[in-house]
Structures are given as C-alpha cells and as structure tokens.
Amino acid sequence: MVDEELFYKDTSDHSISSEEEDMLVWSYSNLNVSFGYHCDSYQSFSPGIDHENGVSPKNIFGTNTMMGSRNGSFSCLSGAAISANFTLANTNICKGLIGEEILPELDSPNSFRKIVSSPSMSRLDLFSTSQGSPVSTESSIFEISKNIWRSSAPTAVSSNFLTNTEVKMAGGAAGEDRVQAVCSEKNGWLICGIYDGFNGRDAADFLAVTLYDNIVYYLYLLENRIKQQNVLYNLSESSLSGVKSELTLAMRTAENEDIKFSETFRAGVLNCLSTAVEQAENDFLCMVEQEMDDRPDLVSVGSCVLVVLLHGTDLCILNLGDSRAVLASMPYAQNGSLKATQLTETHSLENPLEYQKLIADHPDDSSVVRGQKIKGKLKVTRAFGVGYLKQKKFNDALMGILRVRDLCSPPYVYTNPHTLSHKLADDDLFVVLGSDGLFDFFSNDEVVRLVYEFMHDNPMGDPAKYLIEQLILKAAKEAALTAEELMRIPVGSRRKYHDDVTVIVIILGNAQRTMTASTSL
What we know:
Elements: H1 18-30, E1 33-39, H2 57-61, E2 74-82, H3 97-106, E3 108-114, H4 119-123, E4 167-174, E5 177-184, E6 189-198, H5 202-227, H6 246-256, H7 259-291, E7 302-311, E8 314-320, E9 324-329, E10 339-342, H8 352-361, E11 369-370, E12 373-374, E13 384-385, H9 392-395, E14 418-423, E15 428-434, H10 436-439, H11 444-457, H12 463-478, H13 483-488, E16 501-508, H14 511-515, E17 517-518
C-alpha cells in the first residue's frame, strides 16, 4: 500500500490559534522543500497513549524491536526547507553542466522518487580534474588505496551497495542551502545531507551533485576490500539470505564480532565519508581555479557540510561548520525524561576550543579575528570551499575590499571534518538534522521537545515542516510582526529576520518497517 499523503496534520481534537491555522495553510505552498518517507507499518504516537503510566517511548515510536535485526534503520523521515537569502538559482559553474543538466535530474523537492541511474556519476569525468589522492586511515584493515583516484571509477558502479534499481532520492534548494536524502530500502541504508552554503550557492550545488557519488564510490572500494578479508568466509549460507551487499553483510557481522573488529570497521566507514568530502573539496577548488578569471567571486563561496549515514543501529555522522545533528532519547534510568544529545561539533568562533586552536595556529598574526569574524570575513572555522581563506592564490584573485590584505599564514579555515559513529540504543527515539538557522531560534532541548510533543499530538504529522512553522512564528514575534507580514517580505530582505533554514527529522524504526517502506512517487 502506497500512501498518497505521507504526512498530514490531525488537528480535529486540538484547538489552534487563527495565526497558527493561517501558518498551516501558508506552509504547504511556501516551503521551498517539503518531502516525506513513511514506512508501511509505522506505529507512531497515539494521542490516547498515557506514556506517564509505564508505556515505553519505544512502543510509542514503534521502535521497540529495532535491535532485533541489522537491516532496519528508520520508520519515517521528513525534510523541509525555507529560504531567506536571495541567490541565483543556476550559476554557470562547470560550463553549466551542474545547473542546467545534473541538478534538474537530481532534485525532487516535494517527494521521494526512484532514480534509474546516477546522472552525476556518469558525467563526473567531465569536470573532475583534481589529481590529488585523498588521505586514508592507515590503521584500518580496510584502508582505501591512496593510488586510486575517484575519476577512475566505472561510470556505473557495479557494487550491490545502493544498486540503482533500489535507490530513492529527494531534495532541493532553499536560498543558499541544499538538502538531500537517499534511501536504499532492501539494504536498509539511508544517507542524508544538509549543505548550508554562504556567499552564494555554488559550493552547496557542487556538493549536491558530487558528494553522494563520492560516498558511494568509496564505500564501493571498502566493499571490495571486505570481499578480500577472511572475516566473512565462515558465515553460514543462511546468514546470506536476502543480503544483496557485502557491505551490508559486514555491518551485520560487525555487530556480532569482537570489539576490535567492530571499531575498526566503523572507522573504515567514517573514513569513507571523510575521504569523499576531501575529494569533493579537491575537485571544487580545482574547478574554482579554472574559472576564477571569469568569476573571481567563486573563491569566497563555501558551504557547511552535514552528512548522516544510517544503517540499522549504526549512525555515522560527518560535519564541517555549524549545522547540527541532535539525537533525542528517553533513558529509562532517568525516569523517562527526554534528553537531547548533540552528535556534531560546532565549528565556529563561538566554540572556545575552535577559537583557541585558530589563534594558536597563527602565533605571529595579530589580526586573525576582527569584528568577531576570521579576518573580518567568516564566523565558521571549518568549511567546504572558501578558497581565499585557505590559499593565497585564491585571495589574490580578489580586488579591492574583497581581498584579505593580511593573509599572513593560510589556511585560516580548515577542511578536516568531525566524524562520529553512534550505536543506537533502545531508548533512542529520533534524530533532528538542521542548518544553523534552526538553532538561531531554538536550543537542542527545545528542538527535541517540539518534535516529541508534536508527534504525540499528530501521529502522522510532518515534524520537519512543523519546526519551520514554529521558527517563523517565533521570528515574527521577535520582530513584532505577524507570520503573514514576515512572509510577505521578499527573500534577501527577509534575511534580516531569519536565515535559510533546512531540517530533516528521522524517526528511528525497526527492520520490518524499513523493508516494505512506502514511497511517494
């Protein structure tokens, strides 16, 4: 059974203000991105459940059996985004290939859709020209060969991981933000990305086109290395039933193997994510160097990066910049109180550790931070792109006030990401991914509380869209405006009141529900 409406608001038993009612009507037609993926057997909150009288939050969320199989990952997810910045929709980077040909085939801002093949993988050699080899983790038994460059990959990766016929994708753009979600039902994989661009959308667009394929390719190499290891040879034939990927099988095996193997394997997966970002960075800066004579502004374009890879009870996260992933849990040991755990690092000058590292790395530069920004230009300390704060040749391409006059000892912005592998527990409920615009208005605790209460009152509701609705209401109130008045302000001018905002909410679920997920086509 495929649901036509994956998410709807059940407001029949709840009174709402007239402004909130107007917001519900508005949000369906004004969000730049709004998609959902809902599993057939999803059992979410029921308004009649009394979870104060001994009812497990796992039963409420329908994830009480998630530990029973390695092949499940989530029950449902929703994504939403709204713009505040004005930006050109399709710039001419890579001779127009990205904006005119690839992105239109990838974007699906209102629903998940099946993709027959990967349009970016088949054309990657047209603009992938960097010759550097990403660094791999030498201690890993699954070390990726430093001599293999991504552009040497076959145009159609033959790996059983995320085979083309199984892939569903959704995503789009909101201002300078980009969002993507890619799901392989049969292998139980979910990959989500939020790319919060700045000084333009070119870097975020580039990530939307290349990073997913980078990840798939390096996981493909990892899978091939796994095939050469003896750790899988002793598995019984019954354990192979229904498994279409050596990588999926290895994730199952890691669950039951010794701690050393499990940690080493997961380090290999995290290394794939890091290597994929490094390759994208190399390719992007190479493209910038080729085109900066015609478009010198490209040297200042950058993006924060947040990537989440979910498989069963394994949650792997990578981030650069100040986007966040926040895990909501309800530990039984804490009497069922809701807990918010930030799984990402905040790479900005607001983080004392990042600030101190930046100053320590430039002991002979007295003007590292000016006006609470790096060289008076940027608040984030780690980011994709933004070449002029990393290499002198890019800074020299700028003229006048745009150029950094005292770029003494670059780089001032780093590209080394934070990575984390989290083993989901029985009391983990959902994960919220958001660009920093969301957290300009809500704390981690407020975000998870809003989602938790909303899902309780609206079992089939769309929590990502709800968070953005609440943000607009709060932004309007702080500006002494109504939500309608705020939304009438055109993008560009509206940046005064809120940033571009992108949100993904993943409700964690069990294997059976993931295997027969409904897809909006």
